[in-house]
Specification:
This is DML1/Misato tubulin domain-containing protein. Pfam families: Tubulin_3. InterPro entries: DML1/Misato, DML1/Misato_tubulin, Tubulin/FtsZ_GTPase_sf. One of its GO terms (cellular component) is mitochondrion. By secondary structure, the chain is an alpha/beta fold. The chain has two domains: 104 residues, 3-Layer(aba) Sandwich (Rossmann fold); 178 residues, no CATH class. The strands form two sheets. It has a seven-stranded mixed beta sheet with strand order 1-2-3-4-9-5-6, with helices on both faces. Strands 7-8 form a two-stranded antiparallel ribbon. α4 runs parallel beside α5, α5 packs across α9 and α5 packs across α10. The chain is globular and about 55 Å long.
């Protein structure tokens, strides 16, 4: 790309996915026919509308049968599904409908669901913030039940790097593990379907030693982390950090993360390839997020959100489900 085009991206592109070099199959892009983007009258902004939209779209277009099943049947060895969905608006409900169909059709396969949310909500009014919290609460409870593992995220270019790196071990042609193996490593202590993915990008500056940081990451209290998978790429590691903490599974890949010219200029280094480390964790650190969600539910007057079509009792059941999920992540001496 020429320099002018790259600079133009910084001012004109809203999302990393807006600039996409992938050539999609004609059946890969399936619009939601019941709604239009930026429609101020019929907004696609709450969980219930999303569930209804999935049902209506399947009646109109049969996307599941005509597109998704087609690609699944072409796979030589289908491990499972990666689902990325916004959980701040109606896409959480839309995804619930999709997950029900996936479970009915591919019940034994693994489903890793990434919940995408916008943590910068300062530009929203109070009612919109509360609506988003309700959407997130419904997504956490329902999508985690239907997924093998559920993980929450924020901004797009960094998310792309994190997911691309974290998924490498089970995407390689000579893969040492499968998607099911990766998920089972996070939930073998308890039925913990809520996980956290973090990324260090770039992982280190050139010619610096990464071992002290890796050793620090490895020394984690068992009561805080039930299990963890670390993926590093482009690092020279001459020690087995898994021997420091047996709760961890560690994969080190020689290839650096390639950054195209279109990648946002958000890094201190401007090379075409950078080292990366991701941590995929299941443990007590998720409890704080769930407790925040529970406290938020306590401040909302559910009668103000008639558009969700749930009763007050329905929302109270969601709150109880969040409390039950939170209890799963209590620190427990029996785990030591």
């Amino acid at each position: 790309m020429n320099t002018d085009a790259v600079e133009e991206l910084e001012s004109s592109v809203n999302n990393w996915s807006d600039f996409n070099r992938i050539n999609f199959h004609p059946r890969s892009i399936n619009p939601i026919v019941t709604h239009q983007a930026e429609d101020e009258v019929n907004r696609f902004d709450n969980y219930t509308i999303g569930k209804e939209a999935y049902t209506e779209n399947e009646k109109e277009a049969e996307i599941f049968d005509n597109s998704l099943r087609l690609f699944a049947e072409e796979c030589d060895s289908l491990q499972g599904f990666h689902i990325l969905t916004d959980v701040d608006d109606a896409f959480g409900g839309f995804t619930e409908g999709l997950l029900h169909d996936l479970r009915d059709e591919f019940g034994k396969l693994s489903i890793l669901t990434y919940g995408l949310s916008d943590s910068f909500a300062y530009y929203r009014n109070e009612r919109m913030k509360q609506k988003i919290e309700l959407n997130r609460a419904l997504s956490i409870t329902h999508l985690s039940e239907l997924s093998s593992e559920y993980s929450r995220y924020h901004t797009s270019a960094i998310i792309a790097a994190a997911i691309e790196t974290n998924s490498l071990p089970y995407r390689l042609k000579k893969n040492p593990i499968t998607l099911a193996d990766s998920i089972s490593r996070l939930s073998y202590v308890r039925n913990t379907r809520l996980a956290t993915l973090s990324v260090s990008l770039p992982f280190m500056k050139e010619n610096t030693n990464s071992l002290p940081l890796l050793s620090h990451v490895a020394k984690i209290e068992k009561e805080d982390v039930y299990s963890q998978t670390i993926v590093t790429r482009g690092l020279q590691i001459n020690t087995d950090i898994e021997s420091i903490n047996p709760l961890q599974s560690t994969f080190n890949l020689e290839t650096l993360l390639p950054l195209p010219d279109s990648y946002p200029h958000i890094l201190t280094l401007h090379e075409n390839k950078v080292p990366v480390m991701t941590q995929f964790e299941s443990g007590a650190q998720n409890k704080a997020n769930l407790e925040h969600q529970i406290k938020t539910m306590e401040t909302i007057d559910f009668q103000d959100f008639y558009e969700f079509k749930q009763t007050r009792e329905d929302f109270l059941e969601i709150k109880e489900a969040l409390i039950t999920l939170s209890d799963t992540y209590n620190k427990d001496d029996a785990l030591e």
